Amino acid sequence: MHQIVIPPSVVERVLARRGREHVFADFDPARTALVVVDMQNAFMMEGVAHSPCQVALDIVPNINRLARSLRAAGGEVVWIQTAFTDESLVSWSTMHDMSVPSRTAKRSEALKPGSIGYALWSKLEALPEDLYVEKLRFSAFIQGSSDLETILRAKGIDTVIITGTVTSVCCESTARDAMMRNFKTIMVTDGNAAATDDEHNAALIAFYLTFGDIMPTDMIVARCEQAAMVAAE
């Protein structure tokens, strides 16, 4: 698990801008979606992963806790799966041109829909009633990547909680674009995974300063449990 370090100076700047440390602390779980990004074998399974992230294995229990608590409070759980398509070699040529051919070939094999790599990690508690969305870019919200926004709007979702891998790439890209599309957005400090602590913390800090909120799993679960109790009264 990552060692989370958010400097006091960052918190001070957030307080000066927003008036409180966690601007979305009172989020409504019933209008919230847990968006789980790229927790696929292509990033986690030895011998299959084209870009393995070891810490992604460590955050699985937290993601499962978040999913259980949000479902119980009336929210939605969305499993995002990246897919490689031959079409992207043209429409997203800039990204592929920045990789050596052997890496592009390995990525295409690992993220081919229907492959072992494309599948979600087996220890995730993904249920049939959850939502499953395929994306074609790092961000799930950017135009041409997926229909995630349309799906969430139809369900009355106004808040998204971002977890998954990699913190500084697909997770942060999705989180930033979610805010740009006017969703209240929270990144989970111990529910995202990166290659190093430094990369993880840098992404969280950059997001927290301008784009949205960051919270640990325990804080989000407590809010969901509180809301569920109130709803049951």
Can you tell me the CATH topology?
Rossmann fold
Number of helical elements: 11
Report the count of strand segments: 6
- Uncertain regions spanning at least 5 consecutive residues: none
Question: Average pLDDT across residues?
Answer: 93
Terminal-residue CA separation: 37 Å
Account of the 3D structure:
With 233 residues, the protein is α/β, with parallel strands linked by helices. It has one domain: 3-Layer(aba) Sandwich (Rossmann fold), CATH 3.40.50. Helix content is 44%, strand content 16%. It is built from 11 helices and 6 strands. α4 packs parallel to α11. It is globular and about 55 Å long. The model has no long low-confidence stretch (mean pLDDT 93).
Helix and strand layout, with pairings?
Blueprint: H1 8-18, E1 32-37, H2 41-44, H3 55-58, H4 60-72, E2 76-82, H5 88-91, H6 93-97, H7 101-110, E3 131-135, H8 148-154, E4 159-165, H9 167-180, E5 184-193, H10 197-210, E6 213-215, H11 217-232
Parallel strand pairs: 1-2, 1-4, 2-3, 4-5, 5-6
Helix pairs in contact: 1-10, 4-11, 9-10
